[in-house]
Design brief:
CATH architecture of the domain at 13-48 and 98-292: Distorted Sandwich
CATH superfamily of the domain at 13-48 and 98-292: putative glycoside hydrolase family protein from bacillus halodurans
Number of strands: 32
Helix content: 25-40%
Shape: globular
Structural class: alpha+beta
Strand order of the largest sheet: 1-6-7-8-9-16-13-12-11
Strand content: 15-25%
Distance between the termini: 39 Å
Radius of gyration: 27 Å
């Protein structure tokens, strides 16, 4: 039986970052838990600003050769000015809040005996408290089987007195609902949104009929008491029980005149056909079928379960390793709640946002953040939850073909560092061009990195149909672009112009620049993509006309270099960073998430990666700490990886932007700060990386086990090649292991430091019980 994983609190949320998230991929809810005025902030995954128009500017293909010539001649400043003035373009769009459900309870401020919980196993929120001797209980969930939010409130005496209403920051109008127990409004998202850090007053034009339209509706049923409606507020007096169902809808991907409110009413009607118990059981059954695939136990559960106290105590002695396991499971919970197949990809805030101008537009930032969101999906046995990402990649590739032609005069498709729901693919930053604009705005490797996720999905699932029909064509388009983008220099094929995401270097003249020749990340992504593309062609027996050119290009890519500090160079030339402790560690891509450097096969390069990590330091944003933890895990230093997790688990409450912040909010959301969900997923991935690695063609168990994890067990992790793995360990040694294969295909496994050939019979199962038996260690 799976262990129960819960977030437990003794007080209501004081702010949004203390609320508890519910979601089903499409509908998100952030629950405050306040008895006097419950606030539940609502989101729909398809509610974005914009209208889908292509945002490219003038054709700049004729400028690229000039820019390239300037870079190769060392005239970085002139090259950057040309890029800023001509290549950088309009912003992408932003993720919008739907609105809020408000529930005011009479005498609610007099509560006592308060507790609220989020049950991760069941995706169920619960809350209880008493007022003047009457016990009140609430349960809430976003149904995984129906696109509705459900709330049930009960009282030990028929004394529930509530005022229920809706509000929204969007332009909206309330409509007359067909029933007295219903409230509904329709609204519109703005057709354009500047990022919060570039926002100018008046730049959020609402234009009905052009942007995405939305609607939401609630329906309330009571047991006992009186229900009435005043305007658009539902009043309840003297009830014993309240059942509230909420639905939401947008017209994204539908006709402009799609009736969102009618769709909402249909969803409410479908929900009304079942009682609360049936709705709840169907939801739990569906959610737990995903969450129950994996379990991890890392130590005894402490007697103190109130999360605020656990977080504070962890910083004192770090004995509560069960808290690390809780964070692992929280990442899985968030994945299931925000990326269900058929919904949209996880953005910077998952599906939870209460701001009209969210940080960085709450978009898809693909120079690390979006990819990190999906790092744990395969290894944590949630591969199908990547499908929304692949839908986004396909949309982006269509706009990316136009961008490749218009900006570069090249074939194939390209994406830069910002994407939105519409598939925005052009470089942003023209209207905020500053000294650093090229470092973040100009980076045409987004498409290459995203395509590596397509290959990883196949590597774990062995789904040839997916590889043939979806992955290979997208990879081929990206490969075509990079083949044409590479240029001859110093007897190598290099990317020019090139940047290392968001970082700056000191040139030979002592000045600071961002644009140069062949950043290490560029080379690593292209090498990975080209190799994956050739492997895919072999597996599918359908070699592309590009295959020969790809093979030739691979042989001419520059090697990774060790610089004057013993570090892995970040650029082709051995430049120093302007900020040695910069949050991005892009040049370490070949160590993780790539698979081109590992300590066993490339010890010198692995050592250079270690030097780079030491030079970068242990500070950083939440997602930066998570990436570093993954990197240390790949270097098989579990103690260092765990130290960084401890850094991330520092309790913080600030929402001010900081590049050296990190930490965790009380609801366990990762703090950049402000909140970004990528660090949650990155931490989950790092824990998995410490337990199992399979990127070298071998499956290694406990490759980076920290001393604190001397005993534990894990069930249901996936390895590349299609293997499901469960094992337990004691005193740092594996005592039991079970590997289930999709096909009876032998594989190499490293158990307790010894490599064996695991052989699979018709039952497709390999077991280990403390001795190798018929599977002797390799000589």
């Amino acid at each position: 039986m799976q262990k129960r994983w819960q977030l437990i609190y003794g007080n209501p949320a004081r702010n949004w970052n203390e609320g508890l998230p519910l979601g089903n991929g499409s509908l998100g809810a952030m629950v405050s838990g306040a008895p006097d005025e419950e606030r539940i902030d609502l989101n729909l995954d398809t509610l974005w600003s914009g209208d889908g128009r292509y945002k490219g500017g003038e054709n700049t293909a004729n400028l690229i050769p000039e820019i390239r010539k300037l870079v190769l001649g060392g005239n970085y400043e002139q090259a950057e000015e040309l890029i800023k003035d001509n290549v950088l373009g309009d912003w992408g769009e932003g993720y919008m809040p739907l609105g809020s459900l408000l529930i005011k309870q009479k005498y609610g401020q007099r509560y006592e005996n308060y507790e609220r919980k989020l049950d991760l196993n069941q995706a169920l929120y619960s809350c209880s408290y008493s007022i003047d001797g009457v016990i009140y209980e609430k349960e809430m969930f976003c149904s995984m089987t129906d696109n509705i939010f459900v709330l049930k409130m009960t009282a030990s005496e028929p004394q529930i007195e509530l005022k229920i209403s809706l509000e929204s920051k969007l332009e909206h109008t309330f409509e007359d609902a067909p029933r007295v127990d219903q409230i509904m409004f329709k609204g519109n998202a703005p057709i354009f949104l500047e990022p919060d850090h570039r926002h100018r007053k008046g730049s959020e034009p609402f234009d009905p009929g052009k942007g995405i339209s939305c609607g939401t509706a609630i329906q309330v049923d009571i047991d006992g008491g009186i229900l009435s409606k005043t305007g658009h507020v539902i009043n309840i007096e003297g009830a014993k029980e309240v059942l509230l169902i909420l639905s939401g809808s947008t017209n994204f991907g539908k006709e402009k005149d799609f009736d969102n409110l009618q769709n909402c009413l249909v969803q409410l009607e479908n929900g009304e056909k079942r009682d609360y118990h049936e709705l709840k059981e169907q939801h739990i059954t569906e959610f737990s079928s995903y969450f129950g695939r994996v379990d991890l136990i890392l130590g005894d559960r402490p007697q103190e379960l109130e999360l605020q106290n656990r977080l504070k105590k962890f910083q004192e002695d770090r004995e509560d390793q069960d808290l690390i396991a809780l964070m692992f499971h929280y990442g899985r919970y968030l994945m299931i709640s925000s990326s269900k197949p058929g919904t949209q990809a996880i953005n910077l805030q998952g599906i939870w946002n209460d701001q009209l101008f969210p940080p960085w537009n709450s978009d898809y930032t693909v120079n690390i953040n979006t990819e990190m969101n999906y790092w744990p999906s395969n290894v944590c046995n949630l591969s199908e939850f990547q499908l929304p990402l692949f839908d986004l990649i396909e949309r982006t590739s269509r706009q990316g073909e136009k961008a490749a032609q218009e900006i570069y005069g090249l074939n194939g498709w390209v994406a830069h560092h910002n994407i939105d729901i519409w598939g925005h693919s052009t470089p942003v930053g023209k209207y905020g061009a500053d000294r650093e604009a090229c470092s973040w705005g100009f980076w045409p490797l987004g498409s290459g990195w995203l395509c590596c996720h397509l290959w990883e999905h196949y590597a774990f699932t062995q789904d040839k149909k997916f590889l043939e029909e979806r992955a290979y064509p997208l990879m081929e388009g990206a490969v075509r672009f990079y083949l044409e983008y590479l240029t001859e220099f110093d007897n190598y094929l290099v990317t020019v112009p090139s940047t290392s995401p968001e970082n700056l270097f000191k040139g030979d003249d002592g000045e600071v620049y961002s644009v140069t020749v062949a950043s290490t990340m560029d080379v690593a992504i292209i090498r990975e993509l080209f190799k994956n593309f050739l492997l895919a062609g072999e597996i599918l027996n359908c070699a592309s006309p590009l295959s020969k050119a790809v093979q030739d290009a691979l042989e001419k890519l520059p090697p990774f270099k060790v610089g004057k500090h013993g570090q892995l160079q970040e650029w082709y030339f051995d430049y120093d960073e302007e900020d040695q402790h910069h949050r991005h560690v892009s040049h370490l891509y070949p160590l993780h998430p790539g698979s081109q450097i590992n300590p066993d096969d490339q010890p010198d390069l692995a050592k250079a990666c270690e030097v780079s990590l030491i030079r970068r330091g242990d500070e950083g944003t939440g997602w930066s700490l998570a990436w570093k933890a993954n990197l240390w895990a790949r270097l098989k230093n579990g103690d260092k990886a765990l130290d960084l997790m401890g850094q991330q688990l520092r309790l913080v409450d600030t929402t001010e932007v900081s590049s050296l912040g990190g930490g965790t909010y009380l609801n366990l959301f990762c703090a950049h700060p402000p909140f970004q969900i990528d660090g949650n997923f990155g931490l989950t991935a790092a824990i998995a990386e410490m337990l199992i690695q399979s990127h070298t063609g071998k499956i290694e168990l406990l490759p980076a086990l920290p001393l604190e994890w001397s005993k534990g067990e894990v069930r249901g992790l996936l390895a590349r090649g299609g293997y499901t793995i469960s094992f337990s360990w004691d005193k740092g040694k594996i005592v039991k292991c079970k590997i289930e294969a999709m096909e009876p295909r032998d594989c190499q496994v490293i158990i307790n430091g010894e490599e064996i050939t695991a052989k699979f019979g018709q039952d497709k199962t390999f077991t280990y019980n403390g001795e190798f038996g018929n599977h002797p260690p390799l000589l």
